[in-house]
Design a protein that fits this description.
This protein has 132 residues and is mostly helical. The chain has seven helices and two strands. Strand 1 and strand 2 form a beta hairpin.
Length: 132
Amino acid sequence: MELAKQYGPIFQLDMMGTPLVFVPSAELASEVCDEKRFDKTVRGPLKRARLIAGDGLFTGDIDDPNWSKAHNILLPSFSQKSMGIYLPMMIDIASQLTLKWERMNSDDVIDGPKAMIGRSAVSASIMIPTCA
């Protein structure tokens, strides 16, 4: 939010040569996520990943039938109601992880992906979006 105060409601930062546009308010985010007026473009690393992974939710163009199938399957899982159900689990996982990290020595290296190894698929699937 400090950057929004400094640069305004819409701003762009250079992240290692890649320009990223930020819209820090919920209202503007809702505006730019309006699928009736805007769509996504597969480019850069995702375009290269598509060569290996094929077409899917992140690598497919929105007019691709497989993108549409993946989008329709996942959409209910990301509704406001579903997020409300996930929130307590996400808070619990994040609390466990930060408690573990607090107990580490100051010179220990924290490896986020490695911290998820050995957890159940459900815990890992909750931890990944929680940490992101």
